[in-house]
Design a protein that fits this description.
Oligomer: homodimer
Domain DUF2520 (chains A, B): 120-242
Order of helices and strands of chain A: EHEHEEHEEEHEHHHH
Strand order of the largest sheet of chain A: 3-2-1-4-5-6-7-8
Protein name (chains A, B): DUF2520 domain-containing protein
InterPro entries (chains A, B): 6-PGluconate_DH-like_C_sf, DUF2520, NAD(P)-bd_dom_sf, P5C_Rdtase_cat_N, TM1727-like_C_sf
Strand content of chain A: 5-15%
Pfam families (chains A, B): DUF2520, F420_oxidored
Domain Pyrroline-5-carboxylate reductase catalytic N-terminal (chains A, B): 2-83
């Protein structure tokens, strides 16, 4: 079976790497960014192109949601399976006469960071049983955690991930901005952050809540508001309001 | 040296446990909640009281910020050291003729969760060198990470911790609310959450940002807003606005 990955961003890179590490042969990596493709191709020992898409049985489009449709139109073949890796798009975003599917890895991908692929949940949606079998077989070589998911459910999985990952990372970024402003090393907070995550393996996040808002400690809340400004102040107020609503304080 | 811990909440429990585990003798655990104190005392093999505070060299007041002043007035002795564990109060919140200090462990404490005390940073502020030595010696038996800190700096440490821990946990709680509403197991998101935290050990959080807001993917941002309501929608808008401001999008 011939497989091509299309894309030169973080998701494409990590998928290609997971394929190579798990001995799933890649016929080609295809994309626009020649510099990136060259780097990836040298690291993984795969061929690449920015111009000529090779003939293949499976095309995995791992590009940003905005580009999926445009890229999907570049595939002229009919007798093939084309998948995208988006958490939010329906498989019908793929525009062509081929078989369509969704192949969504739930993870945050940064190029410079090694990943344990075996723990990444894959959510798959296909048009028929045969394609489902193909994609389950491939994903199962990479991960222990492969599931079916409708587009409707996948949208909510992606939305949950935005809260649990993207927004969490942004809180770290704003937190570091505050500690940097006082020359407090951010490393001090790493054991606290680890424990915050360790906790939710054992306790419901709702029951694990600590801090001034859930204690309704108005004096501290006011003090903190005086120390903050701009977007961090907005976040502070919004989060405290939401905490107090959740616990009916 | 006689040591008493005052309080029956999470911080008092975990401090008492850390003391006992590290063979620092406790003369007494003192507090209002007899039921809790009895449980802790039975688990740790320490004596407790809700009425008679024993004579001691060091009193550690581990109660909520709102109660520190009131509790500190209960200590009639002069020749002793009294400390509180608050991240936000000055040591002058302690009202008495004794020596005063701050003894702030940077961690999130939940009773039902085991903790690795050796990784907890302790921030200490005293009136004199002798008391500093006493508190450093005690804290160093528990943790590898003991530092001095002024009240001014401690306020910002606490504020940073609210973003990096309390708000992060609340995002987990709101995320779980979303996934629960669609009967999506929250366990799916644990590898993603782990990776989100693992990343900041290697990459600046600012550089690790992923997701629709930093890609300025307006179509997804609008779709997500349609799926949300109430406090989660407010959080969604505030966080995206802050992300887009940070990256000047």
């Amino acid at each position: 079976m011939q497989i091509v990955i299309i894309g030169s961003g973080n998701v494409a890179y990590h998928l290609a790497k997971a394929f190579v590490q798990n001995k799933i042969p890649l016929a080609q990596i295809f994309g626009r960014n020649e510099e990136e493709l060259k780097k990836v191709s040298e690291e993984l020992g795969t061929s690449y192109s920015t111009k000529n898409l090779v003939d293949s049985d499976l095309y995995i489009i791992a590009v940003s949601d905005n580009s999926v449709e445009e890229v999907s139109e570049m595939i002229p073949k009919k007798d093939c399976l084309v998948v995208h890796t988006s958490g939010s798009l329906p498989k019908e975003s793929l525009k062509g006469d081929y078989r369509k599917a969704s192949f969504y890895p739930l993870q945050t991908f940064s190029k410079s960071k090694e990943l344990d692929y075996s723990k990444i949940p894959f959510f798959i949606e296909t048009e028929n049983e045969q394609d489902k079998k193909i994609l389950f077989e491939i994903a199962s070589k990479i991960s222990e955690n492969v599931m079916e998911s409708t587009h409707e459910k996948r949208k909510y999985i992606h939305l949950t991930a935005v809260f649990a990952c993207n927004f969490v990372n942004h809180l770290f970024a704003r937190a570091k901005e505050i500690s940097d402003s006082q020359e407090i090393p951010f490393g001090y907070f790493l054991p606290l952050i680890d424990e915050t995550v360790q906790k939710i393996y054992e306790i419901e996040p709702r029951s694990a809540q600590t801090g001034p808002a859930v204690r309704n400690d108005k004096r501290i809340l006011e003090l903190h508001e005086q120390l903050l400004h701009g977007e961090s102040l907005e976040i502070y107020k919004t989060m405290n309001h939401s905490i107090q609503k959740m616990y009916e304080l």
